Amino acid sequence: MNDFPWLTVIAAVPLVGAVVVAAIPRERVESLKSAAIAFSMIALGLTIALMTQFRSTTRVGAPQFQFVEDHTWIADYGIGYRIGVDGVALLLIALTAFLVPIVLLASWNVESKTKSYFVLILVLETALIGCFAAIDVFLFYVFFEVMLVPMYFLIGVWGGERRVYAAVKFFLYTLLAGLLMLVAVLALYLRTKNGDPSGIGTFDYREWLKLDIPTATQNWLFLGFAIAFAVKVPLFPFHTWLPDAHTEAPTGGSVLLAAVMLKIGTFGFLRYSIPLFPDAAQTFAPMMMVLGLIGIFYGALVAIVQKDIKRLVAYTSIAHLGFIVLGLFAFTSQSLAGGVLYMINHGLSTGALFLIIGFLYERRHTRLISEYGGLRSVVPVLAATFLVAGLSSLALPGLNGFVSEFLVLLGTYSRHQVVGIIATFGIILAALYILIAYQRTMQGELTVEANRNLPDLTLREKFVIGPVLALIVALGVVPGPALRIIEPAVNRVLERVAQTDPAPTVSGVVGSAK
Amino acid sequence: MTDVVLLAQETHAAADASGAASLMWLLIVAPLVGATLLLFAGRRSDKWGHLLATAVSAFTFVLGFAMFLQLRGEGHDERTISQKLYEWIPIGSLHVDFRLRLDPLSICFVLLITFVGTLVHVYSIGYMDHDHDRRRFFAYLNLFIAAMLLLVLADNFLLLYVGWEGVGLASMLLIGFWGDVPAYATAAKKAFVVNRVGDVGLGLAVMTMFATVGAVGFDEVFARAGDISGPTVTAICLLLLLGACGKSAQFPLHVWLPDAMAGPTPASALIHAATMVTAGVYLIARANPLFSASHTARTAVMTVGIITVLIGGVIACAQDDIKKVLAYSTISQIGYMMVGVGLGPAGYALGIFHLLTHGFFKALMFLGAGSVMHGVHNETDMRRMGGLRTFMPWTYWTFLIGWLAIIGAPFTSGFFSKDAILELAYAEENYVIYALGLLGAVITAFYMTRLMAMTFWGPNRFDKGVHPHESPRVMTVPLALLAAGAALSGVLLGGFDADKRPIAAWLEPVFGPAEHHEPAINPVLLTLFTVAVIAGGAYAAFTRYARHDVPITAPGVVLPPVTWARKKLYFDTVYESVVMRPGQWLARALVYVDGRGVDGAVNGAAALVGGTSGRVRRVQTGFVRSYALAMLGGAVLLVGALVLVRLVP
Question: What's the mean pLDDT in A452-476?
Fold first, then answer.
């Protein structure tokens, strides 16, 4: 590993790009759009280079974070510019860097205030990458809140009819929950201050892991973090901002919101709530799993009867994120790794669905399912992409979603049999909501005259959706490399909560009974 | 890990692939590439797509046959060859390889799938000639071949699951091939969703295996089958049975198969008759070490099987749509296979035996039905057919062989395979199963003879404008080849000596040796008795439907049992009122709760904070936008202030 500040550069490239794009006169629309995409592509290229240098090792004593940069920022409060990645953060950064160029290309036809739109998405990318890369909790909090700003404007300016309501609701909800986390963060900081001979204390995450916190205190602090993340995930009953935000957001906003921003919540559970408060995490694990279960069924059932296609996909996200939370709090290596992989896979499948719905919206300017129907015969390629993305979402084996969903279920089942059994029934509802959506939009008779002459996907749109679908297939067929990147981080979490995988009930040397 | 290694040393280890078997992966990859090529090429491949797909399918058959010869050349205990392609899912103690396994059981399926599959491809060249989407149809067929071969070649339960849902996908795509018709699209969805119910069972079985023995590979799980506690092994088997019920359309999950007839008929022949729907039987036969360890589970398998034999048969008697009759017949026949594998060690091979012969005669009859439909302008109502034997002799004579085979006429394939199952039930003193199985055979003879009479015999009843004609060679030659299989496969695979059935000997490395119980009475007498009652059933239908006029519209006033059978014994009705409608109500109720309750609380809280309720309207229009912006500004200020702190000494 060399000393090149990989992460800083990767996070900075989009921000620099935003500045450059902002400097381009608004009349030169093509140039500014191309420039934005170019910068996001550079960030993606650098991320791929970073991945090739990442060392996935389960060796004892291996450092938790790689590519660490540690600089003093606000010395008086022990705040530092500290960044670094483990396998989980690396994959989430990769997902972000992968999706942003796609989202920008998908937003090529944004007409009003084009420049601002592209600038905001680049700023958002920096905030997202920073959030995953931060290993200073204050820095994390800053990114956590800063990312709300570009998203607020994306929804509020370029959104649908109820965009203002949705944007405000999204903003206030997340911000208020974030304040609870801030209180918990400050409380933890004060604890480090007590133990520090210099009396300064620190926001260094790695130092926080060494804190010895009494169980009762852990419970309160856990809740402070957990509520912030539960809103972000979102977990039932904190979810109602999501359908509005997802639905009203423009395509690019919906994709990044669903694919990446929701994962900040689950990432937060995994990175902060569980390792910092291991005792509390175990105390609250049953509650978290129950909330996950509720999400699986509640989200799916509500999705089934939606009339608005974007709202339908938004509710499926609640179901999917329920699986992730279930996996994270079942505390087995399979369920945890499955949960992490699920974050990536949900990003791809739901991202793809929102992109495709975006294509439809650009053609017909409606999200009502009843306005579609029988499209397969008119736009077969578009219909096919919808089907593949949908099959990924319903976890068809062979595609990415299956590996993660099955690992979550298998891991959960091996420790909590009944929970695993109940959750498995969720796969029936997943098939239902996806196939209902497919049937009502793509199959059947062409009922709406306006759809008769819809053009099929353009070359640009194929470039948008193609890479996502390719990754959906690749991660389903060869999930091994991703799992190997995830495994060390997952093992650390298990160690932290002092759990080991349940041993098989029938063990011993094979054939000994014969 | 160490014990897995031990296992490999102690039991007869699977040999590494060499020779033709080293190309095992190609059996899956070739059709997959074929399908991908056709789907990506789109209209550009309209001219050659069907030929490419057929060639690929034929190639898999040739390759499969070469592997069969190779296996035959190996010693009795060395007929298990495995090939690891890569490590698929490695995490914690779970290590699932992408590993294929060729053994006497899987090669039977490889041959059946690729042989029938290739004939169906050839037949479809003619059958789908006028469809402007023929290329897409062939792409799906290739996709199906790939998934089905993966299902039977997988060396662990999780990889099997991939093939299992893969064939489900291909099936759904083919059922919904003409998805512009809303009912067909609904049928496709129904097939997938009902199968998913079964998949819950299969999935939970795999999870239980992992939790119990820490592995999901066939060898690892089976080696420990004897060590697993009784209730657990029964639970695993019952979960597998649930999976099998979904895929193989067994009671109570059989309801999707009749609707699946919406797909093009060649797809019905291949997927919904000969191969995919028998995957449940394969699953149970494959998991035989587990089922052998649980008497309860075997009884459950038999019970499900025999119930399905009867309900499938009864409903088939009242159907007028030729494909629906065949669909219920398939359900019923798979019931026999389930009874076979449920009978335990001696029965596994017999279940597979009936599966293979059924593969021939049922594919034959489905393709025959397709040929009939082709000849009478896509009519499927048998009441509007009749007397077709003179118009389409090839179709008629081949169908006749299929009919003889399914009712079990002496020396046809069904005679050997179905009789073997009944005889074993008798020999094992399962007299209830035997009696009900015999009753099923009578019903089978009745409804199949009814089908023959209404379609081929008696007077013409088709509309004036319809001019029946024989199908082209490309369709009749596959019929002839399948007819040969339907006629001869029984005597070749089974033969006359119940102790030395070639199929049982071939499968012995997989199922182990089976003791043969001599039935309490002479088996020849049993056989004669069976043939007599079957003849009775056939004769009853013959007098009723060939000798008497068949009204063009079904008579309205009928006995209650006929009404029940016409209503498909009310399964769909019950599911709709017990599951689907309450489910919809629940979903609607939740939407209400979500909007008024959960979100209402959120908005209410917001309104409370914002001031009196009179302001709510303004909250939603713009007043709060500035409020939020103020908060945003506040947050930025807060951050800025914290940054500034360090500038202040």
Answer: 95
Q: In this complex, is the C-beta atom of A421 within 8 Å of any C-beta atom belonging to chain B? A: yes
Q: Please tell me the distance from the alpha carbon of residue A228 to that of residue A268, in angstroms, as a whole number.
A: 9
Q: Which of B158, B188, B590 sits opposite A302 (nearest CB)?
A: B590
Nearest to B149 by CA among B281, B19, B276: B276
Assess whether the previous peptide bond of A150 is cis (omega < 30° from 0): no
Provide the 3-class DSSP secondary structure of residue A452. Answer: coil
Residues 378-417 of B with CB under 8 A from A: none
Does the pLDDT at position A510 exceed 50? no
Which distant-in-sequence residues (6+ apart) come within 8 Å of A357 by Cβ?
A: A251, A309, A310, A313, A367
For B123-134, what is each residue's pLDDT tens digit?
999 999 988 899
Q: What is the largest CA-CA distance in chain B?
A: 111
Whole-number Å distance between alpha carbons of A184 and A223: 9
Whether B257 and B193 have beta carbons less than 8 Å apart is answered as: no
| A397 to B186: CB separation less than 8 angstroms, yes or no | no
For the cut 70, the answer to whether the pLDDT of residue B566 exceeds it is: yes
Share of chain A above pLDDT 70, in %: 98
Q: CA-to-CA distance for A288 and A223, rounded, in angstroms?
A: 11
User: For chain B, what is the mean pLDDT?
Assistant: 88
User: Tell me, what's the pLDDT at B1?
Assistant: 36
pLDDT in tens, A186-231: 999 988 888 778 888 899 999 999 998 999 999 999 999 999 999 9
Dist CA B37 CA B45 (whole Å): 9
Q: 10 Å Cβ neighbour count for B343?
A: 24
- A 10 A CB-CB count for B130 gives 8
Distant-in-sequence, close-in-space partners of A491: CB < 8 Å, separation ≥ 6:
A58, A333
Nearest CA to A509 out of B213, B232, B97, B229 is that of B213
Cα-to-chain-centroid distance, residue A181: 19
CB B311 within 8 A of CB B245: no
pLDDT at residue B635, rounded to an integer: 60
Note which residues in 430-449 of chain A have CB less than 8 A from chain B: 431-432, 435-436, 439, 442-446
Could you tell me which of B618, B593, B590, B591 has the C-alpha nearest to residue B606?
A: B618
Q: How far is B620 from chain A (nearest CA, A)?
A: 6
Contact B203, A409 (CB under 8 A): yes
A357 within 8 A of A312, measured Cβ to Cβ: no
| Element of type H or E holding A72 | strand A66-74
Query: Residues of A with CB below 8 A from B584's CB?
Result: 304-305
The pLDDT assigned to A57 comes to 77
The Cα of B9 is separated from the nearest Cα of chain A by a number of Å equal to: 11
Q: How far is CA B547 from CA B320, B541, B542, in A?
A: 18, 9, 7
What's the whole-model pTM score?
A: 0.92
pLDDT over 90 at B594, yes or no: no
Q: Cis omega (within 30 of 0) on the bond before A502?
A: no
What is the signed CA dihedral for A7, A8, A14, A17, rounded to 10 degrees? -140
Distances (CA, A) of A10 to A5, A50, A52, A122, A340: 9, 9, 14, 12, 22
Contact A165, B620 (CB under 8 A): yes
Q: How far apart are CA A170 and CA A147, in angstroms?
A: 12
Q: Could you tell me which residues come within 8 angstroms of residue B557 by beta carbon, excluding any fewer than 6 positions away? A: none
Both tokens of A35, joined, read 């420039």
